[in-house]
């Protein structure tokens, strides 16, 4: 009879990562995030074309060409101003709460750094593949008191560097980062680089289209947050259960009940203890998507955690 493989903290962490990976890849929120990204991509192409048409209607191409010739002849200070921009402000006529004529504005920005939460949602898979925690802001950033320097800022710096919000002189300049790639989508405008100084009037239909485009970016970030919450709630229960498992076959039994592939190849060395409230069968039921914890189960979890802390101390 072969010897049972015992667990230690490192092995439990490896097992947790297997469950985490499975849950993050097999749930409705990852599907909804991918669908949101695809819809944004489709809208982006159309919105960029629409912006270009509106800008050219207010600032004809021949005017742009004229200013460019004057700049070439007299220099930038005397010939006029042109700017290659990806940020645009639009407005429509409206009536305020007092019944007075007013205007309503919407900003459309095609740059990636305009919304970092959206950027991390859009490039979540790529960040993870490059050993960057794409979830760091949801993990530690919801409350300043919960942030744990240097880890929060370490992951923030890694994410910003990968996305191109932060660059180093030592980097390979031949690599085009996401931020630079997105910056290619620009339109020539007459005026300075101050986006807020340029406002183009549109009708109600176009205005609402731009609002919907901005909401789609927000929806991508929201699906990312829901994906994190989904997996994290399961992992909280799993961590408590794994603390109570002494042997690998207990974790294997749990994985089998949940349909999660788990093999001994993820393990390294030995250790630890056991609490019956987290038997593989009981914990599997807690981790089912359709199973909601009862009051008794929550009490049992609290007691188990207390008992575990007393054993450790």
What do these coordinates show?
With about 325 residues, the protein is mostly helical. It has two domains: about 10-25 and about 230-310, no CATH class; about 30-225, no CATH class. Helix content is about 60%, strand content about 10%. The protein has helices at about 10-25, 30-60, 60-75, 75-80, 115-120, 125-130, 135-140, 150-165, 180, 205-245, 250-260, 280-285, 295-310; strands spanning about 80-85, 85-95, 100-110, 185-190, 200. The chain has a three-stranded mixed β-sheet, covered by helices on one side. The protein has a two-stranded antiparallel ribbon with strand order 1-4. Helix 10 (about 205-245) runs antiparallel to helix 12. The radius of gyration is 27 Å and the shape is elongated.
Helix content: 55-70%
| Poorly predicted sequence stretches spanning 5 or more consecutive residues | 269-278, 308-313
Number of DSSP E strands: 5
In percent, how much strand structure appears in the residues? 5-15%
Q: How many separate domains?
A: 2
Secondary-structure topology with pairs:
Layout (H helix, E strand, L loop, with lengths): L8 H17 L2 H31 L2 H14 L1 H4 L2 E4 L1 E9 L5 E9 L6 H7 L1 H6 L6 H5 L10 H13 L14 H5 L4 E4 L8 E3 L2 H41 L3 H11 L21 H8 L7 H18 L1
Parallel strand pairs: 2-5
Antiparallel strand pairs: 1-4, 2-3
Helix pairs in contact: 1-10, 2-10, 5-10, 10-12, 11-12
């Amino acid at each position: 009879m072969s010897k049972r493989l015992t667990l230690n903290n490192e092995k439990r962490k490896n097992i947790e990562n297997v469950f985490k990976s499975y849950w993050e890849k097999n749930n409705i929120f990852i599907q909804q995030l991918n669908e949101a990204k695809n819809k944004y991509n489709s809208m982006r192409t159309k919105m960029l074309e629409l912006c270009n048409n509106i800008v050219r209607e207010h600032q004809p191409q021949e005017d742009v060409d004229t200013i460019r010739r004057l700049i070439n002849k007299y220099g930038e200070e005397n010939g006029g101003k042109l700017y290659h921009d990806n940020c645009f402000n639009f407005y429509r006529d409206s009536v305020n709460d007092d019944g007075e004529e007013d205007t309503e504005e919407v900003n459309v920005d095609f740059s990636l750094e305009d919304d970092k939460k959206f950027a991390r949602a859009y490039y979540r898979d790529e960040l993870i593949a490059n050993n960057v925690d794409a979830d760091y802001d949801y993990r530690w950033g919801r409350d300043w008191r919960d942030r744990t320097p240097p880890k929060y800022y370490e992951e923030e710096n890694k994410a910003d560097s990968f996305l191109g919000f932060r660059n180093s002189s030592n980097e390979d300049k031949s690599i085009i980062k996401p931020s630079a790639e997105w910056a290619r989508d620009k339109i020539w405008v007459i005026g300075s680089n101050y986006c807020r100084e340029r406002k183009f009037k549109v009708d109600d239909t176009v205005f609402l289209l731009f609002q919907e485009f901005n909401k789609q970016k927000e929806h991508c970030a929201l699906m990312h947050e829901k994906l994190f919450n989904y997996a994290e709630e399961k992992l909280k229960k799993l961590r408590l259960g794994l603390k109570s498992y002494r042997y690998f076959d207990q974790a294997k039994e749990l994985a089998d009940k949940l349909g999660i592939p788990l093999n001994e190849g993820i393990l390294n060395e030995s250790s630890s203890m056991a609490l019956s409230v987290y038997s593989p069968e009981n914990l599997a039921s807690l981790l089912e998507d359709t199973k909601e914890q009862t009051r008794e189960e929550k009490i049992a979890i609290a007691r188990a955690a207390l008992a575990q802390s007393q054993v450790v101390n």
